[in-house]
From TrEMBL:
Subunit structure and binding partners: Monomer. Associates with the 50S ribosomal subunit.
Residue span, Hflx-type G domain: 192-355
Annotated function: GTPase that associates with the 50S ribosomal subunit and may have a role during protein synthesis or ribosome biogenesis.
Main location: cytoplasm
Superkingdom assignment: Bacteria
Protein name per Swiss-Prot or TrEMBL: GTPase HflX
Gene from which this protein is expressed: hflX
CDD domains, per the entry: HflX (cd01878)
Pfam families tied to this protein: GTP-bdg_M, GTP-bdg_N, MMR_HSR1
InterPro entries in the record: G_HFLX_dom, GTP-bd, GTP-bd_M, GTPase_HflX, GTPase_HflX_N, GTPase_HflX_N_sf, P-loop_NTPase
Gene3D superfamilies: 6.10.250.2860, GTPase HflX, N-terminal domain, P-loop containing nucleotide triphosphate hydrolases
Keyword tags: Cytoplasm, GTP-binding, Magnesium, Metal-binding, Nucleotide-binding
Location(s) in or outside the cell: Cytoplasm
């Protein structure tokens, strides 16, 4: 495992500083990097050239040597020039949050689409950072007025990278067209769709797995960014209503812009869905800020108008009673069957507007009972003197048909 020092500047306006430092540790761990020490500095704003004040940077360098660390991690996204200044000064690799996230995505990407998305994001991250990577070549040439070898090489490389980005984007376009054709086919069949969204590690894939048999299960694990591609499964309710459920890539604060762009299409599933489940790990002490990131990201990708439910997951780790619903908030534990059944019912209510009714069907109209059995869910059925008493649930827009059949 590689050893690193984490540095972070706390400004007056920077919120949830400790929490973000903690998250960097988790991200580092996901990249197989161990953080030996965290060093922070209170500043009005980060130093223009070195992120921290030069005195502090000297201190970091000393510790770096003492602790035999080979890398410096920076709490937030830094500009290419600051990154270059720091790596020149420390004479070691310097990674910011964006670089760490890109690294994780690159090591986890398995499908063609996610590999292309990560490739695209990496190239876009690399492009403004080419400057300086050939500095040594220009130093050798001395002060020539013509372009140095390094400079020419940068231009060449930049053009090559731009060409690659163009190629990758075209490939991605093809995949997206295919995906939207599939989606439109599903829409034509009028199958309603539900998307699981939320901060990474909230339990989206676990909820998905609660709904499906093992052979249809998706990858779930206690690590950041376990899911990188959208998976969609068809779900049938007790009342024979069918909907699709999509598991999506998790959100994180300060997601590199190139990644947001690259993953937009994956998250499109949420934009076009009939219902969004905003999944929150309620046992996490930073749940509020994580929910805020979730809300902001959903807004950014254009989901403001899609109906939603909050799903507060991992209630088993808290004292909160579950499963239960309070207005638009559902409290569950993805690991328990009763919670999944409850969630399924609530999704059904939202999508199909199910209503529970009580009727007495006269014996001469027993065919109504067939209709109810086929289109709804019968909870109780009793044969009485004046007819059959039935308690059942059915879609709101089918109630008038039952009513008409009873009156014919
Ligand atoms: N105790 C408890 N653990 C849970 C619950 N739901 C999920 N987990 C655990 O939380 C971890 C993350 O779950 P995932 O389902 O992979 O989370 P995710 O939201 O899909 O995460 P990403 O794919 O990274 O966005 C796993 O170790 C799960 O076993 C729950 O209700 N209770
Ligand atoms: Mg997942």
């Amino acid at each position: 495992m590689e050893k690193a020092i984490l540095i972070g500047v706390q400004t007056y306006t920077s919120h949830s500083f400790e929490e973000r430092m903690e998250e960097m540790k988790e991200l580092a761990l996901a990249c197989d990097i161990e953080i030996c020490m965290s060093i922070s500095q209170n500043l009005e704003h980060p130093h223009k050239k070195y992120y921290m004040n030069p005195g502090k940077i000297e201190e970091v360098k000393r510790i770096l040597e003492d602790q035999e660390c080979s890398m410096v991690l920076v709490l937030e996204a830094i500009s290419p020039s600051v990154q270059r200044n720091l790596s020149d000064f420390f004479d070691c690799e310097v990674m910011d949050k964006s670089a760490l996230i890109l690294e994780i995505f690159a090591s986890r990407a398995k499908t063609k689409e996610s590999m292309l998305q990560v490739e695209c994001a990496r190239l876009k991250y690399l492009l403004p950072r080419l400057q300086g990577s050939y500095k040594h070549m220009d130093r050798q040439r001395g002060g020539s007025r013509n372009k140095g070898t390094g400079e020419k090489k940068i231009e060449l490389d930049a053009r090559r990278i731009e060409g690659k980005i163009h190629f990758v984007e075209k490939e991605l376009d093809k995949i997206h067209t295919q995906r939207s054709v599939q989606r439109n086919q599903r829409k034509k069949g009028m199958v309603k769709s539900v998307a699981l969204t939320g901060y990474t590690n909230a339990g989206k894939s676990s909820i998905m797995n609660g709904f499906v048999n093992e052979d249809k299960s998706v990858f779930e694990k206690d690590m950041l960014f376990a899911t990188l591609t959208t998976s969609t499964r068809q779900i049938e309710t007790e009342n024979h209503n069918v909907f699709t459920l999509s598991d999506t890539v998790g959100f994180i604060s300060d997601l590199p812009h190139s990644l947001v762009q690259a993953f937009h299409s994956t998250l499109e599933e949420a934009v076009v869905s009939d219902l969004i489940l905003k999944v929150v790990d309620i046992s996490n002490e930073h749940k509020d800020s994580k929910l805020q990131v979730c809300e902001e990201t959903l807004k950014e990708i254009g989901c403001e108008k899609v109906p939603y439910l909050y799903v507060f997951n991992k209630c088993d780790q808290t004292n909160i009673e579950y499963p239960k619903r309070v207005e638009d908030r559902i409290y569950i534990c993805a690991k328990e069957k009763s919670s999944i059944a409850f969630l399924k019912q609530e999704i059904e209510k939202e999508l199909f507007h199910m209503e529970t009714l009580h009727v007495v069907i006269p014996y001469e109209k027993v065919s109504v009972l067939d209709y109810i059995h086929t289109n709804g869910k019968v909870h109780r059925q009793e044969y009485k003197e004046d007819g059959i008493e039935v308690d059942f649930s059915i879609q709101q827009d089918l109630i008038h048909r039952v009513d008409r059949l009873l009156r014919i």
